[in-house]
Specification:
41% of the residues lie in helices and 8% in strands. It is an alpha+beta fold. The chain has a 5-stranded antiparallel beta sheet with strand order 2-3-1-4-5. α2 packs across α4 and α5 packs antiparallel against α7. The longest helix is centred in the C-terminal third of the chain and has 22 residues. The radius of gyration is 19 Å and the shape is globular. The two termini are 31 Å apart.
């Protein structure tokens, strides 16, 4: 189990890749499992990831580059849409982006984690428009592949009802968490306050906060519907 984790500590099992970001820092990958891995095991996963990144940097536009030899494409697309739909700021391969890899197999993304600043909760990317995860780290390269691009687009269209169902799920979960929310706001005075840097909105009630999140999700779905063909007919350009 490996995590892209810019917040790693010096005593943790970490390797650095400078393939995508050719700079002094590179990208940190933290190996969670196995714990106390041998140097041979760490070298094996490091070499696989580095070779994968060399591969995706050479992906040719609108061609089938056979990325399935490196990546479980179905799992990756599910992971991508969960993060993109919620516009999760951590999922730009900053932290809490996990994948599983077994020797002689492909990368399988997940589990998903860390959504506390998603769905409009981050002060700098709170709007419901624009692509966010699509332009992050591995993704701009993968979106150049014809098969991946088609399957990614197809997944959103075919699973639209699943994303819409999140609105009903929010209502059911809201009632379950009602008492916990009341205790939460007694412990941390964040509901009616914007004093915390990560709370850019104030609400009169817990219900109002949930309704605002649902409104954000509806707007997010509409924006994605309107822009789902971005990159489909013209080559993606990410600034």
């Amino acid at each position: 189990i490996v995590e892209a984790d810019a917040k790693y500590r010096s005593n943790e099992q970490v390797f650095i890749s400078k393939i995508i970001y050719d700079d002094s820092l590179g990208k940190a990958f933290r190996v969670h499992t196995p714990k106390n891995a041998s140097l041979e095991s760490l070298a094996t996963i490091e070499n696989f990831v580095l070779n994968f990144e060399r591969f995706i940097k050479k992906i040719e536009w609108q061609k089938n580059n056979n990325i399935e030899q490196w990546l479980d494409v179905d799992e990756y697309i599910k992971h991508y849409w969960i993060q993109e739909f919620s516009k999760n700021p951590d999922a730009v391969f900053y932290t809490s982006v996990y994948f599983v890899w077994v020797k002689d197999d492909v990368i399988k993304m997940g589990p998903v984690w860390d959504f506390d600043l998603s769905m409009g909760g981050h002060p700098t990317i709170y709007t419901s428009d624009k692509w966010h995860i699509r332009r992050a780290y591995w993704n701009p390269y993968l979106f150049q592949d014809s098969v991946y691009l088609y399957q990614n687009r197809k997944f959103w269209i075919e699973q639209k009802e699943s994303f819409l169902s999140v609105l009903n799920t929010a209502d059911s979960v809201k009632s379950v968490l009602q008492k916990a929310a009341e205790k939460n706001y007694k412990r941390w005075d964040i509901l009616e306050s914007t004093s915390c840097v990560y709370h850019n909105k104030a609400y009169q009630s817990y219900n109002e906060a949930v309704d605002d999140m649902k409104d954000w999700l509806q707007k997010r779905m509409l924006w994605i519907d309107e822009h789902i063909d971005d990159c489909f007919f013209e080559k993606c350009v990410f600034n």
